[in-house]
Amino acid sequence: MTAGMANEGASQVYESDRSLGEYLLFHYGSDDEQFPWQEGPGEALGFPRRSVEELIDWESSVGSALDLGCAVGKSSFVLSEIAQEVVGIDFSKSFIGAAQSILQNGKLCYQYHEEGTRWKEGVVTIEHIPQNLTFEVGDACNLREDMKPFDLLHAANLLCRLPDPMSLLTRLPDLVVPGGQLILTTPFTWLEEFTPREKWLNGEESGRGLIKVLNQSFDLELEKNLPFLIREHRRKFQYTVALGMRWRRRKS
Q1: Where are the beta strands (DSSP E) in 23-137?
Q2: Is residue 54 a part of any domain in this protein?
Q3: Which of 16, 19, 60 is nearest to 230 (CA)?
Q4: What is the CATH number of the domain that holds 225?
Q5: What is the C-alpha separation between 52 and 156, in angstroms, rounded?
Q6: How high is the pLDDT of residue 152?
Q7: Residues 6+ apart with CB under 8 A from 118
């Protein structure tokens, strides 16, 4: 979710201990930890898993998968249950460090904000450590040249955090094999601290602009709204609705 930042200040947003705690809770926390109230948007919980399971074509075999903007890695772990080989990439060294610790140790202790100066202890526990998953730091706008195409590319809530979304969008056809799946989610939350205004996709008609670009090499198979919830503290949350899409790389 953070693979590529517009400037040094923006990139530091995802290197803080507070941000790390928020994302570890968002990815791995129980429903009660994420939202400790009876009344509220329960359908928005578990987004890192839902962004894979609700959009993927379960009839297609997946040999290799790329989780681009993987943050602290929950979706990558989900993909490791489906694909034979998974690579998770994010721009944040803090996020990738946490994901690698979970992968290596099957466990990670962290803190998340409760209220005021109070913090709570959280623990990530992975019962089965996958052998087919690796994590690395990388920039979605400037991926390494030796990156091979994948059977499935998953990029959740990444586009509107990139300094130049088109630099990724124009490379996507080379990152997905013909007949492969491209899974995207985005709330189009454009902020100039991350993306210069002139780089926003078609102004307020971002969805239309995205479809226009991807239609050149992909066919749209599925489109649905995916709400998600990020906890800032026990009484303050970010509720957002992402547009979810599954695209198929055209074979010719």
Answers
A1: 64-68, 85-90, 107-115, 118-125, 133-137
A2: yes
A3: 19
A4: 3.40.50.150
A5: 9
A6: 98
A7: none
> What pLDDT digit, counting tens, does each position of 212-233 carry?
999 999 999 999 999 999 999 9
What DSSP character marks residue 149?
Answer: P
Identify the H or E element spanning 224: strand 218-233
Q: Which DSSP symbol is given to 98?
A: H
Q: Is 234 helix (H, G, I), strand (E, B) or coil?
A: coil
Q: Could you list the residue range(s) of the whole structural domain that residue 120 is in?
A: 8-249
**Residue burial 183-201, b: 16+ Cβ < 10 Å; e: rest:** bbbbbbebeeebbeeebbb
125-to-27, 30, 52, 101, 128 alpha-carbon distances in Å: 12, 11, 20, 11, 9
Is 1 domain-assigned? no
Closest Cα to residue 187, out of 146, 225, 149, 234?
225
- Output the pLDDT for position 125: 97
Asked if the model's pLDDT at residue 5 lies above 50, the reply is: no
CA distance 249 to 246: 10
Confidence (pTM): 0.94
Report pLDDT digits (tens) over 44-72: 999 999 999 999 999 999 999 999 999 99
